[in-house]
Design brief:
By secondary structure, this protein is α/β, with parallel strands linked by helices. Helix content is 47%, strand content 11%. Strands 1-2-3-4-5-6-7-8 form an eight-stranded mixed beta barrel, surrounded by seven helices. The longest helix is centred in the C-terminal third of the chain and has 20 residues, at 339-358. It is elongated and about 70 Å long.
């Protein structure tokens, strides 16, 4: 079953426009594995392997910047994987870890952390130690199926992994009492946002106050709204995860900043076919703009054959069409240097690149339009201004504006697929993928390549 699962998940090789470096397991080497525990009675060992999408969800720190991502699988068929048997949970954990290793997780992450949730009985699996230890937070999850490890053995495995650099995040000890005895050794505790209130907060802090060591950091997951996030922030939590990252607020009174206005003026001149000799002096008039443009052009994501040190040469190498893209990046990145706007900017970059990769068989102008659809899908969140006001200076193609406004169509379906990947929305994933005729593997490959590209662009 595992062989079929891995074969189905990885058929087709590396994603387009990227050559995924093999991390610890080159193609010719067997992936280390051990036999998973015996499945519970009634489990169908011969059933077809589930097709899965790789998803990610941003984890923000107290500075409201992205501190890392939780990576997870979602199964086609509108079902969650974890409620299945322990054996299937092991198989899916192997697929998850192997997928991240083949994608060269350390490179994908850059300075970020990876949060990876696996069954408690998976902690002695040899594949875990091939992950980048100092960038990985492991979350053990109890499983209702038979085969749970002895707690002393589990905690010994946790200490072993901590000894080589991994961080361990235990579930809420008020919800999983069996783990309470190891709380003093945990690096983090993860809490479910929906169940938190003042009473829970008081009990947990009383428990942590009894520890003889510094209390572990608190990670709060499934935060759906900004109000919920703000409550947990004021309560002193350290990490925050959930759809709140890209939530919209009422920005009716919002205004674009002078920095954005200057770049938008330049974009308008470019769209009106102003000569290059007129564009270059406009860029040079703003030293900060010049430096940011050179930084983008020289990033690993652009992959020019040589470093550019002058605006003239950069424009010659990139071309006017690509310059339009970079100027929009500059406009929407000019003020996205703090807080949630920075996280939204990173999400928008991943969306844009993922749409571009998903449209790799289309003509170049359409691929460029797809990139802009993804990038601008969070323009209002980034700029804290109404979407129509944020888009007005750009002179966008009506098809792009219509897609961003919610008009149904093939571009909208691709955008909804990218959004579902970042929110781990199982039903949204399958529905959007079916409309786009995209396989789980193709979506996963493009998703990982897009995340890697966004990291390189910001390096």
């Amino acid at each position: 079953m595992l062989g079929r699962l891995l074969k189905r998940f990885f058929r087709g090789g590396s994603a387009p426009e990227a050559s995924a470096k093999q991390a610890s397991f080159p193609p010719s080497a067997p992936i280390p594995q051990r036999a998973p525990p015996t499945a519970s009675a009634g489990a169908s060992l011969g059933s077809p392997a589930p097709e899965t999408f790789l998803c990610r969800e941003a984890v923000l720190g107290r500075d409201e910047r992205i501190a890392g991502y939780q990576f997870m699988l979602r199964e086609a068929g509108h079902r969650r994987l974890y409620p299945r048997s322990r054996r299937v949970a092991h198989l899916c954990s192997e697929v998850l870890v192997t997928t991240l290793l083949r994608a060269d997780l350390g490179r994908v992450l850059g300075p970020r952390l990876a949060f990876i949730e696996v069954p408690d009985s998976f902690f002695d699996h040899p594949s875990l130690t091939a992950l980048p230890a100092h960038q990985t937070v492991l979350l053990p999850r109890p499983h209702e199926d038979a085969g749970a490890p002895d707690l002393d053995a589990l905690f010994a495995q946790c200490r072993r992994l901590q000894g080589i650099g991994f961080r361990i995040a235990l579930p809420d000890p008020l919800a999983v009492a069996n783990y309470a005895g190891f709380v003093s050794h945990a690096n983090l505790i993860w809490l479910e946002g929906q169940g938190l209130d003042a009473g829970h907060d008081r009990q947990l802090r009383q428990l942590l106050h009894t520890l003889n060591t510094a209390p572990p950091a608190l990670l709060v997951r499934r935060l759906d709204t900004l109000e919920h996030f703000r409550y947990c922030f004021k309560s002193g939590a350290h990490y925050f995860q959930g759809p709140f990252v890209t939530c919209r607020e009422n920005w009716d009174a919002g205004h674009l900043s002078p920095n954005v206005g200057r770049v938008n003026t330049l974009i308008a001149r470019l769209r009106n076919d102003a000569p290059t000799a007129e564009i270059i002096p406009l860029i040079k008039q703003d030293a900060a703009l010049s430096l940011r443009l050179l930084r983008y052009v020289n990033s690993a994501a652009v992959a020019l054959p040589e470093k550019m040190s002058s605006i003239e040469r950069a424009l010659m190498m990139v071309g006017r069409d690509k310059l339009y893209r970079w100027l929009i990046l500059l406009a929407y990145g000019a003020d996205a240097i703090e807080g949630r706007a920075s996280a939204a900017m990173e999400a928008a970059l991943v969306r844009g690149r993922m749409l571009e990769l998903l449209g790799r068989d289309r003509l170049a102008p359409e691929r460029e339009s797809l990139f802009l659809v993804g990038l601008l899908s969070l323009a209002d969140v980034i700029l804290r201004a109404p979407l129509d006001k944020a888009l007005a200076p750009l002179g966008l193609d009506p098809d792009i504006e219509g897609t961003l406004g919610g008009r149904p169509g093939p571009w909208r379906d691709l955008l909804e697929l990218a959004i579902a990947c970042e929110h781990a929305n199982a039903q949204g994933l399958e529905d959007a993928a079916a409309r786009c005729r995209i396989t789980p593997q193709a979506a996963t490959n493009c998703h990982l390549d897009a995340l890697r590209w966004a990291m390189e662009l910001q390096a």
